[in-house]
Amino acid sequence: MDLFAGLGGFHVALDELEGRGVFAAEREPILKALYKVNFGIDAWGDLNDLSSDEIIACHVPDHHVLTAGFPCQPFSKAGDQLGFKDTNQGNLFFKVHDILRVKRPRFFILENVPNILKHDGGRTKTKIIRMLQKLGYSVDVEHFSPHEFGIPQVRDRAYFVGSIDGLDHFEWPAKHKAPTEIHWVLRHDVPSSRPIPEQTMRAIDMWGDFLRRAPTSLKLPSFPIWSMEFGATYPYEDETPSGVWARRPVWGLRQMGFKGSFGQSLEGTIDEQITRIPSHANRGGDFDFPRWKRTFIRQNREFYQANRSWIDPWLAQWSPQNFYSSFQKMEWNAQGEDRDIDNFVLQMRASGLRVKRPTTSPSLIAFTQTQVPILGANLAGERRYMTPAECAELQCLGEIQLPASDLDAYKALGNAVNARVVKAIAERLLHGLIRPLSSTISDFEPLRATA
Protein backbone atom coordinates (compact mmCIF):
# COMPACT_ATOMS: atom_id res chain seq x y z
CA MET A 1 0.00 0.00 0.00
CA ASP A 2 1.86 3.07 -1.31
CA LEU A 3 0.28 6.48 -0.56
CA PHE A 4 1.69 9.73 -1.99
CA ALA A 5 3.64 7.28 -4.10
CA GLY A 6 5.72 9.64 -6.26
CA LEU A 7 8.40 7.63 -8.04
CA GLY A 8 7.68 4.58 -5.88
CA GLY A 9 10.59 4.48 -3.43
CA PHE A 10 8.53 2.54 -0.90
CA HIS A 11 7.46 0.10 -3.64
CA VAL A 12 11.07 -0.47 -4.72
CA ALA A 13 12.12 -1.15 -1.11
CA LEU A 14 9.32 -3.59 -0.29
CA ASP A 15 9.55 -5.30 -3.67
CA GLU A 16 13.17 -6.14 -2.80
CA LEU A 17 11.78 -7.76 0.36
CA GLU A 18 9.48 -9.88 -1.80
CA GLY A 19 6.39 -7.80 -1.07
CA ARG A 20 3.58 -7.28 -3.58
CA GLY A 21 1.95 -3.91 -4.10
CA VAL A 22 -1.87 -3.94 -4.10
CA PHE A 23 -2.74 -0.21 -4.11
CA ALA A 24 -1.03 3.11 -4.77
CA ALA A 25 -2.16 6.73 -4.79
CA GLU A 26 -0.46 9.59 -6.63
CA ARG A 27 -2.06 12.88 -7.66
CA GLU A 28 0.58 14.14 -10.14
CA PRO A 29 -0.50 12.94 -13.63
CA ILE A 30 3.06 12.34 -14.90
CA LEU A 31 4.03 10.28 -11.85
CA LYS A 32 0.70 8.48 -11.79
CA ALA A 33 1.26 7.32 -15.38
CA LEU A 34 4.87 6.34 -14.61
CA TYR A 35 3.76 4.24 -11.65
CA LYS A 36 1.77 2.10 -14.07
CA VAL A 37 4.79 1.81 -16.37
CA ASN A 38 7.23 0.92 -13.59
CA PHE A 39 5.10 -1.26 -11.34
CA GLY A 40 2.00 -2.29 -13.29
CA ILE A 41 -0.40 -0.64 -10.84
CA ASP A 42 -2.98 1.92 -11.96
CA ALA A 43 -2.62 4.36 -9.09
CA TRP A 44 -5.52 6.15 -7.47
CA GLY A 45 -5.46 9.93 -7.98
CA ASP A 46 -6.50 12.36 -5.25
CA LEU A 47 -6.75 10.77 -1.80
CA ASN A 48 -9.38 13.35 -0.88
CA ASP A 49 -11.73 11.41 -3.16
CA LEU A 50 -11.64 8.62 -0.55
CA SER A 51 -14.11 10.80 1.29
CA SER A 52 -15.92 8.31 3.52
CA ASP A 53 -15.35 5.07 5.39
CA GLU A 54 -17.62 3.31 2.89
CA ILE A 55 -15.58 4.52 -0.11
CA ILE A 56 -12.32 3.52 1.61
CA ALA A 57 -13.69 0.07 2.43
CA CYS A 58 -14.87 -0.38 -1.16
CA HIS A 59 -11.86 0.89 -3.12
CA VAL A 60 -8.84 0.22 -0.86
CA PRO A 61 -7.96 -3.48 -0.77
CA ASP A 62 -6.93 -5.29 2.38
CA HIS A 63 -3.18 -5.09 2.91
CA HIS A 64 -0.50 -5.91 5.46
CA VAL A 65 1.70 -2.79 5.21
CA LEU A 66 0.76 0.85 4.63
CA THR A 67 3.52 3.24 3.53
CA ALA A 68 3.21 6.98 3.05
CA GLY A 69 5.56 9.90 2.57
CA PHE A 70 2.78 12.36 3.37
CA PRO A 71 3.37 15.95 2.19
CA CYS A 72 6.26 17.55 4.03
CA GLN A 73 5.99 21.20 2.96
CA PRO A 74 3.62 22.18 5.82
CA PHE A 75 6.20 20.93 8.36
CA SER A 76 9.43 21.96 6.60
CA LYS A 77 11.68 24.77 7.80
CA ALA A 78 11.71 25.95 4.17
CA GLY A 79 7.93 26.52 4.18
CA ASP A 80 5.40 28.47 6.22
CA GLN A 81 5.25 25.65 8.82
CA LEU A 82 1.45 25.77 8.96
CA GLY A 83 1.38 22.07 9.81
CA PHE A 84 -2.12 20.62 10.11
CA LYS A 85 -3.55 24.11 9.50
CA ASP A 86 -2.40 23.88 5.86
CA THR A 87 -5.74 23.01 4.27
CA ASN A 88 -4.13 21.93 0.98
CA GLN A 89 -1.53 19.48 2.29
CA GLY A 90 -1.12 19.57 6.06
CA ASN A 91 -4.39 17.77 6.72
CA LEU A 92 -3.58 14.85 4.40
CA PHE A 93 -2.11 12.98 7.37
CA PHE A 94 -5.71 12.60 8.55
CA LYS A 95 -6.51 10.76 5.32
CA VAL A 96 -3.70 8.31 6.12
CA HIS A 97 -5.21 7.97 9.58
CA ASP A 98 -8.65 7.26 8.08
CA ILE A 99 -7.29 4.44 5.92
CA LEU A 100 -5.44 2.92 8.87
CA ARG A 101 -8.61 3.11 10.96
CA VAL A 102 -10.81 1.46 8.33
CA LYS A 103 -8.43 -1.14 6.85
CA ARG A 104 -6.31 -2.00 9.94
CA PRO A 105 -3.08 -3.18 8.27
CA ARG A 106 -0.61 -4.88 10.60
CA PHE A 107 2.20 -2.40 9.95
CA PHE A 108 2.87 1.11 8.67
CA ILE A 109 5.92 3.20 7.75
CA LEU A 110 5.48 6.97 7.42
CA GLU A 111 8.16 9.41 6.25
CA ASN A 112 8.51 13.19 6.55
CA VAL A 113 11.03 15.96 7.09
CA PRO A 114 12.88 15.84 10.44
CA ASN A 115 11.44 19.21 11.45
CA ILE A 116 8.10 17.47 11.99
CA LEU A 117 9.60 16.13 15.23
CA LYS A 118 10.10 19.70 16.51
CA HIS A 119 7.21 21.42 14.73
CA ASP A 120 4.94 23.47 17.00
CA GLY A 121 7.17 22.80 19.98
CA GLY A 122 6.89 19.02 19.55
CA ARG A 123 3.09 19.06 19.69
CA THR A 124 2.72 17.87 16.09
CA LYS A 125 4.81 14.76 16.77
CA THR A 126 2.88 14.08 19.97
CA LYS A 127 -0.45 14.46 18.19
CA ILE A 128 0.54 12.07 15.39
CA ILE A 129 1.74 9.39 17.82
CA ARG A 130 -1.32 9.68 20.06
CA MET A 131 -3.71 9.43 17.11
CA LEU A 132 -1.96 6.30 15.86
CA GLN A 133 -1.81 4.76 19.32
CA LYS A 134 -5.56 5.27 19.75
CA LEU A 135 -6.01 3.02 16.70
CA GLY A 136 -4.22 0.26 18.58
CA TYR A 137 -0.75 0.63 17.08
CA SER A 138 2.53 0.58 18.94
CA VAL A 139 4.48 3.50 17.49
CA ASP A 140 8.10 4.58 17.39
CA VAL A 141 9.94 7.32 15.49
CA GLU A 142 13.56 7.91 14.46
CA HIS A 143 15.44 9.92 11.86
CA PHE A 144 17.97 8.65 9.32
CA SER A 145 20.05 9.97 6.45
CA PRO A 146 21.23 7.92 3.42
CA HIS A 147 24.89 8.66 4.24
CA GLU A 148 24.40 6.52 7.37
CA PHE A 149 23.75 3.57 5.03
CA GLY A 150 26.76 3.99 2.74
CA ILE A 151 25.03 6.30 0.24
CA PRO A 152 26.76 9.59 -0.64
CA GLN A 153 23.89 11.92 0.23
CA VAL A 154 23.11 13.78 3.46
CA ARG A 155 19.30 13.93 3.63
CA ASP A 156 17.86 13.54 7.09
CA ARG A 157 14.27 12.27 7.24
CA ALA A 158 11.93 11.22 10.06
CA TYR A 159 10.34 7.75 9.99
CA PHE A 160 7.31 6.69 12.03
CA VAL A 161 6.76 2.94 12.30
CA GLY A 162 3.79 1.14 13.78
CA SER A 163 2.59 -2.38 14.45
CA ILE A 164 -0.70 -3.83 15.66
CA ASP A 165 1.34 -6.71 17.11
CA GLY A 166 3.59 -4.45 19.23
CA LEU A 167 7.19 -3.44 18.68
CA ASP A 168 8.95 -5.66 21.20
CA HIS A 169 10.72 -7.43 18.34
CA PHE A 170 11.71 -4.25 16.53
CA GLU A 171 15.08 -2.53 16.56
CA TRP A 172 16.00 0.40 14.36
CA PRO A 173 18.83 -0.32 11.91
CA ALA A 174 22.29 0.73 13.01
CA LYS A 175 23.72 3.97 11.66
CA HIS A 176 27.12 3.61 10.03
CA LYS A 177 29.87 6.23 9.87
CA ALA A 178 31.97 4.78 7.06
CA PRO A 179 33.12 7.40 4.52
CA THR A 180 31.26 7.83 1.25
CA GLU A 181 32.32 9.28 -2.11
CA ILE A 182 30.17 11.06 -4.70
CA HIS A 183 32.07 9.35 -7.55
CA TRP A 184 30.30 6.09 -6.63
CA VAL A 185 27.16 7.32 -8.37
CA LEU A 186 28.67 9.32 -11.22
CA ARG A 187 27.90 8.07 -14.71
CA HIS A 188 29.80 9.12 -17.78
CA ASP A 189 27.56 7.27 -20.24
CA VAL A 190 24.63 9.67 -19.69
CA PRO A 191 25.95 13.23 -20.12
CA SER A 192 24.10 16.23 -18.74
CA SER A 193 21.73 17.59 -21.37
CA ARG A 194 21.47 21.11 -19.93
CA PRO A 195 24.35 23.60 -20.10
CA ILE A 196 25.28 25.64 -17.04
CA PRO A 197 24.18 29.28 -17.63
CA GLU A 198 26.98 31.72 -18.37
CA GLN A 199 26.20 33.88 -15.31
CA THR A 200 26.39 30.81 -13.08
CA MET A 201 29.74 29.82 -14.59
CA ARG A 202 31.06 33.34 -14.02
CA ALA A 203 29.90 33.25 -10.41
CA ILE A 204 31.73 29.96 -9.88
CA ASP A 205 34.85 31.45 -11.46
CA MET A 206 34.51 34.54 -9.26
CA TRP A 207 34.34 32.53 -6.03
CA GLY A 208 37.06 30.21 -7.31
CA ASP A 209 39.29 33.26 -7.64
CA PHE A 210 38.27 34.34 -4.12
CA LEU A 211 39.49 30.98 -2.80
CA ARG A 212 42.79 31.29 -4.71
CA ARG A 213 43.47 34.80 -3.43
CA ALA A 214 42.79 33.93 0.22
CA PRO A 215 46.11 33.37 2.04
CA THR A 216 46.72 29.69 2.70
CA SER A 217 47.40 30.53 6.34
CA LEU A 218 43.93 32.07 6.68
CA LYS A 219 41.14 29.83 7.92
CA LEU A 220 38.13 30.67 5.78
CA PRO A 221 34.93 31.57 7.63
CA SER A 222 32.48 28.88 8.62
CA PHE A 223 29.70 31.48 8.47
CA PRO A 224 28.17 32.39 5.07
CA ILE A 225 30.31 34.90 3.22
CA TRP A 226 28.14 37.87 2.22
CA SER A 227 30.21 40.00 -0.13
CA MET A 228 27.54 42.75 -0.18
CA GLU A 229 28.59 43.52 3.41
CA PHE A 230 32.14 44.30 2.26
CA GLY A 231 32.35 48.09 2.71
CA ALA A 232 28.82 48.42 4.10
CA THR A 233 28.27 50.49 7.27
CA TYR A 234 24.45 50.94 7.41
CA PRO A 235 22.95 50.42 10.90
CA TYR A 236 21.90 46.91 11.86
CA GLU A 237 22.12 46.50 15.65
CA ASP A 238 20.36 49.26 17.59
CA GLU A 239 18.48 50.38 14.48
CA THR A 240 17.82 49.11 10.96
CA PRO A 241 17.47 50.83 7.58
CA SER A 242 13.69 50.35 7.76
CA GLY A 243 13.68 51.99 11.17
CA VAL A 244 15.55 55.00 9.81
CA TRP A 245 13.21 55.25 6.79
CA ALA A 246 10.20 55.23 9.12
CA ARG A 247 11.79 57.83 11.40
CA ARG A 248 13.06 60.04 8.57
CA PRO A 249 10.52 59.52 5.75
CA VAL A 250 11.98 62.28 3.55
CA TRP A 251 15.74 61.99 4.06
CA GLY A 252 16.12 58.41 5.17
CA LEU A 253 19.79 57.48 5.42
CA ARG A 254 21.02 60.60 3.65
CA GLN A 255 23.62 62.75 5.43
CA MET A 256 24.12 60.16 8.16
CA GLY A 257 27.53 58.97 6.97
CA PHE A 258 26.45 55.38 6.25
CA LYS A 259 27.37 53.22 3.27
CA GLY A 260 25.28 50.57 1.58
CA SER A 261 26.16 47.33 -0.22
CA PHE A 262 29.81 47.21 -1.32
CA GLY A 263 30.30 50.68 0.20
CA GLN A 264 27.80 52.38 -2.14
CA SER A 265 26.69 55.93 -1.37
CA LEU A 266 23.34 56.36 0.35
CA GLU A 267 22.95 60.02 -0.58
CA GLY A 268 20.11 59.40 -3.05
CA THR A 269 16.35 59.18 -2.64
CA ILE A 270 14.83 56.59 -0.34
CA ASP A 271 13.93 54.45 -3.37
CA GLU A 272 17.59 54.60 -4.43
CA GLN A 273 18.71 53.84 -0.89
CA ILE A 274 16.54 50.71 -0.84
CA THR A 275 18.31 49.36 -3.94
CA ARG A 276 21.70 49.99 -2.29
CA ILE A 277 20.93 48.09 0.91
CA PRO A 278 21.30 44.26 0.77
CA SER A 279 18.06 42.36 0.23
CA HIS A 280 18.46 40.72 3.66
CA ALA A 281 18.30 44.17 5.28
CA ASN A 282 15.98 46.36 3.18
CA ARG A 283 12.51 44.95 3.82
CA GLY A 284 9.96 47.52 4.95
CA GLY A 285 8.84 47.18 8.55
CA ASP A 286 11.90 45.10 9.50
CA PHE A 287 12.78 47.17 12.57
CA ASP A 288 14.70 44.56 14.54
CA PHE A 289 17.00 41.99 12.94
CA PRO A 290 17.19 38.53 14.56
CA ARG A 291 20.38 37.73 16.40
CA TRP A 292 21.66 35.32 13.71
CA LYS A 293 21.40 38.03 11.05
CA ARG A 294 23.14 40.64 13.20
CA THR A 295 25.90 38.11 13.88
CA PHE A 296 26.43 37.32 10.18
CA ILE A 297 26.53 41.02 9.26
CA ARG A 298 29.08 41.77 11.99
CA GLN A 299 31.23 38.75 11.13
CA ASN A 300 31.35 39.64 7.45
CA ARG A 301 32.24 43.26 8.09
CA GLU A 302 35.01 42.24 10.49
CA PHE A 303 36.30 39.65 8.01
CA TYR A 304 36.44 42.29 5.29
CA GLN A 305 38.27 44.83 7.42
CA ALA A 306 40.88 42.22 8.38
CA ASN A 307 41.41 41.10 4.76
CA ARG A 308 40.97 44.20 2.60
CA SER A 309 44.45 43.86 1.13
CA TRP A 310 43.38 40.95 -1.07
CA ILE A 311 39.59 41.34 -1.07
CA ASP A 312 39.61 44.85 -2.57
CA PRO A 313 41.48 43.71 -5.73
CA TRP A 314 39.02 40.80 -6.01
CA LEU A 315 36.09 43.23 -5.78
CA ALA A 316 37.66 45.47 -8.41
CA GLN A 317 38.16 42.58 -10.86
CA TRP A 318 34.80 40.84 -10.50
CA SER A 319 32.30 43.55 -9.45
CA PRO A 320 30.05 41.08 -7.58
CA GLN A 321 27.44 43.84 -7.22
CA ASN A 322 26.56 43.15 -10.87
CA PHE A 323 25.62 39.54 -10.10
CA TYR A 324 22.31 38.23 -8.78
CA SER A 325 22.02 38.64 -5.01
CA SER A 326 22.29 34.89 -4.38
CA PHE A 327 25.53 34.78 -6.43
CA GLN A 328 27.05 37.42 -4.14
CA LYS A 329 27.15 34.90 -1.28
CA MET A 330 29.16 31.73 -0.66
CA GLU A 331 28.98 28.95 1.93
CA TRP A 332 32.34 27.21 2.33
CA ASN A 333 31.65 23.71 3.69
CA ALA A 334 35.07 22.23 2.95
CA GLN A 335 37.27 23.46 5.78
CA GLY A 336 40.81 22.13 5.49
CA GLU A 337 40.57 21.08 1.84
CA ASP A 338 42.66 22.40 -1.08
CA ARG A 339 40.96 25.54 -2.36
CA ASP A 340 40.37 24.57 -5.97
CA ILE A 341 36.66 25.11 -6.54
CA ASP A 342 36.59 22.42 -9.25
CA ASN A 343 37.37 19.78 -6.61
CA PHE A 344 33.93 20.15 -5.06
CA VAL A 345 30.20 19.60 -5.44
CA LEU A 346 28.54 22.98 -5.91
CA GLN A 347 24.98 24.15 -5.50
CA MET A 348 23.39 27.51 -6.23
CA ARG A 349 20.90 28.31 -3.49
CA ALA A 350 19.10 31.43 -2.31
CA SER A 351 21.65 31.45 0.54
CA GLY A 352 24.54 31.55 -1.95
CA LEU A 353 26.95 29.24 -3.74
CA ARG A 354 27.33 26.21 -1.46
CA VAL A 355 30.69 24.44 -1.77
CA LYS A 356 30.67 20.87 -0.43
CA ARG A 357 33.28 18.16 -0.16
CA PRO A 358 33.03 15.43 -2.85
CA THR A 359 32.10 12.87 -0.20
CA THR A 360 28.35 13.52 -0.44
CA SER A 361 25.77 15.22 -2.59
CA PRO A 362 23.68 18.07 -1.24
CA SER A 363 20.34 16.87 0.02
CA LEU A 364 18.04 16.11 -2.89
CA ILE A 365 15.05 18.41 -2.65
CA ALA A 366 12.35 19.41 -5.13
CA PHE A 367 14.95 21.39 -7.05
CA THR A 368 14.29 24.55 -8.97
CA GLN A 369 16.15 24.73 -12.26
CA THR A 370 19.08 26.55 -10.64
CA GLN A 371 19.51 24.31 -7.57
CA VAL A 372 20.60 21.05 -9.21
CA PRO A 373 24.06 20.08 -7.85
CA ILE A 374 27.00 20.99 -10.10
CA LEU A 375 30.05 18.76 -10.28
CA GLY A 376 33.41 20.50 -10.39
CA ALA A 377 35.58 19.87 -13.44
CA ASN A 378 38.04 17.77 -11.44
CA LEU A 379 35.22 15.41 -10.49
CA ALA A 380 33.50 14.98 -13.84
CA GLY A 381 36.01 16.10 -16.49
CA GLU A 382 34.08 19.34 -16.94
CA ARG A 383 31.68 21.35 -14.86
CA ARG A 384 28.21 19.91 -15.31
CA TYR A 385 24.95 19.32 -13.54
CA MET A 386 24.33 15.97 -11.91
CA THR A 387 22.03 14.01 -14.20
CA PRO A 388 18.64 12.62 -13.17
CA ALA A 389 20.11 9.11 -13.49
CA GLU A 390 22.84 9.97 -10.96
CA CYS A 391 20.29 11.52 -8.59
CA ALA A 392 18.14 8.38 -8.93
CA GLU A 393 21.11 6.32 -7.77
CA LEU A 394 21.39 8.61 -4.74
CA GLN A 395 17.79 7.62 -3.96
CA CYS A 396 18.55 3.91 -4.65
CA LEU A 397 15.69 3.61 -7.14
CA GLY A 398 17.16 0.88 -9.31
CA GLU A 399 16.15 0.65 -12.97
CA ILE A 400 12.87 2.55 -12.82
CA GLN A 401 11.91 4.88 -15.63
CA LEU A 402 12.05 8.57 -14.78
CA PRO A 403 10.02 11.49 -16.17
CA ALA A 404 11.14 12.49 -19.66
CA SER A 405 11.67 16.12 -18.65
CA ASP A 406 14.82 16.68 -16.62
CA LEU A 407 13.10 19.28 -14.45
CA ASP A 408 10.17 16.93 -13.75
CA ALA A 409 12.67 14.20 -12.90
CA TYR A 410 14.68 16.41 -10.52
CA LYS A 411 11.50 17.53 -8.75
CA ALA A 412 10.23 13.97 -8.36
CA LEU A 413 13.61 12.72 -7.13
CA GLY A 414 13.75 15.52 -4.57
CA ASN A 415 10.38 14.39 -3.21
CA ALA A 416 11.23 10.68 -3.30
CA VAL A 417 11.93 8.45 -0.35
CA ASN A 418 15.30 6.69 -0.26
CA ALA A 419 14.61 3.03 -1.05
CA ARG A 420 17.63 1.60 0.77
CA VAL A 421 16.83 3.40 4.02
CA VAL A 422 13.22 2.19 3.84
CA LYS A 423 14.37 -1.35 3.10
CA ALA A 424 16.63 -1.39 6.17
CA ILE A 425 13.76 -0.21 8.38
CA ALA A 426 11.14 -2.48 6.81
CA GLU A 427 13.26 -5.63 7.09
CA ARG A 428 13.36 -5.19 10.86
CA LEU A 429 9.73 -4.10 11.22
CA LEU A 430 7.89 -6.71 9.15
CA HIS A 431 8.51 -9.51 11.60
CA GLY A 432 6.80 -12.70 10.44
CA LEU A 433 5.90 -11.34 6.99
CA ILE A 434 9.31 -11.69 5.32
CA ARG A 435 12.34 -13.85 5.69
CA PRO A 436 15.42 -11.98 7.00
CA LEU A 437 17.71 -10.63 4.32
CA SER A 438 21.34 -10.13 5.22
CA SER A 439 22.11 -7.80 2.32
CA THR A 440 20.18 -4.73 3.50
CA ILE A 441 23.13 -2.84 4.93
CA SER A 442 25.89 -4.47 2.92
CA ASP A 443 28.63 -2.46 1.27
CA PHE A 444 27.32 0.19 -1.10
CA GLU A 445 26.58 -1.05 -4.59
CA PRO A 446 25.35 1.67 -6.95
CA LEU A 447 21.82 1.10 -8.20
CA ARG A 448 21.29 2.04 -11.82
CA ALA A 449 18.38 4.07 -13.13
CA THR A 450 17.42 4.94 -16.69
CA ALA A 451 17.44 8.60 -17.68
UniProtKB/TrEMBL annotation:
Keywords: Methyltransferase, Restriction system, S-adenosyl-L-methionine, Transferase. It is an enzyme of class 2 (transferase). Transmembrane segments: none annotated. Its EC number is 2.1.1.37. Pfam families: DNA_methylase. Gene3D superfamilies: Vaccinia Virus protein VP39. The active site is at C72. SUPFAM superfamilies: S-adenosyl-L-methionine-dependent methyltransferases. The keyword Transferase applies. InterPro entries: C5-MTase, C5_MeTfrase, SAM-dependent_MTases_sf. PANTHER family: TRNA (CYTOSINE(38)-C(5))-METHYLTRANSFERASE. Belongs to the class I-like SAM-binding methyltransferase superfamily. C5-methyltransferase family. This is DNA (cytosine-5-)-methyltransferase. The lineage of its organism: Bacteria, Pseudomonadati, Pseudomonadota, Gammaproteobacteria, Lysobacterales.
